[in-house]
Amino acid sequence: MSSGLHLPPRLRAALRAPVVAAAIVAGYPVLLGMRLLLAPFERRRERFTSWYFRRWSGAVLGLLGLTVRVSGEPPAPPFLMVANHLSYVDILVLASRLGCVFVSKAEVRGWPLLGPICRTLGTIFIDREARRDIPRVIAEVERDLKKGRGVVLFPEGTSSAGLTVEPFKPPLLALAARAGQPVHYATLAYRTTGAGDPPAHQSVAWSGGVPFAQHAWGLLHLQAIEATVRFAPEPIFETDRKRLAERLRQAILAELRPALPRVNEELIEGAER
Predict the structure, then answer these.
(1) Which of 3-12, 22-31, 49-58, 148-157 has the lowest mean pLDDT?
(2) How far is CA 244 from CA 48, 72, 171, 174, in A?
(3) Which of 28, 166, 214, 252 gets the most CB atoms within 10 Å of its CB?
(4) Diameter over CA atoms, the chain
(5) What is the pLDDT of residue 137?
(6) Helices and strands (DSSP H and E) totals, the chain
(7) Full DSSP string of 131-174
């Protein structure tokens, strides 16, 4: 369904919901089947999984009426990357441009359908309430990097409205700091571009304790969304994890274009010109 159709929001959501669900449900058996066929060939299996995740994510974004604008060059795996975190949509946006796995909160593992999909795609789950889980997660990140994968994590530890960047939690950056490894970073922003759509900080960003199903249903109402991804030209090196966390946060803050109401976006853009 074209995102350009001028339909009443409720009708748009009602038409989109089964199509998006079908794309997700139908795509999973293909992923499982191909991974089973390629099981004896680990490198081919992982290359296929990475390629499929990118294509699958791009297809779902298209059905949501979401286009992605990119500036800068995404790093080639293996890499460790951090980004600001606004929504579960971030994962689809970054996955459509990167070959990577993600570090995600442990609760996602139990979500219907999405949990098994994330497990199959190699997601690394972390219990954010248990500090004792951090060494295990760091070991899994290190294992994936050694296998040549890209790993993306969101150091804010939660999603926000996108008006700023919350303080970064440094524990998961200990591996990079200890080894002097470069950490790449990307800055995410959204805006709604459909007439009458609420601003992105209210509709695309997922914060404030809104249940997932309620937020996803609201997302389906939007006519069109534009995501911007800014990949940094150079990674950051730092041997102290706390300094590394703060340097990364400040670098992303410097690139941030907040998800403000459209009238404010237009004023900002006019001032920049």
Answers:
(1) 3-12
(2) 33, 21, 10, 9
(3) 252
(4) 58
(5) 95
(6) 10, 7
(7) GGGHHHHHHHHHHHHHTT-EEEE-TTSS---SSS-PPPP-GGGH
Residue type, 42: E
pLDDT of residue 260: 54
- pLDDT-derived band at 95 (thresholds 50, 70, 90) equals very high
Q: Which two tokens stand for residue 233?
A: 């030209």
Locate 216 and state its tokens. 């996803």
Count of C-beta atoms within a 10 Å radius of residue 195: 9
Amino acid at 199: P
At 57, the amino acid letter reads S
pTM for the structure as a whole = 0.90
Helix H or strand E segment including 70 = strand 66-71
Q: In what side-by-side order are the strands of the sheet with 66-71?
A: 66-71, 225-231, 184-192, 79-83, 150-153, 100-105, 124-126
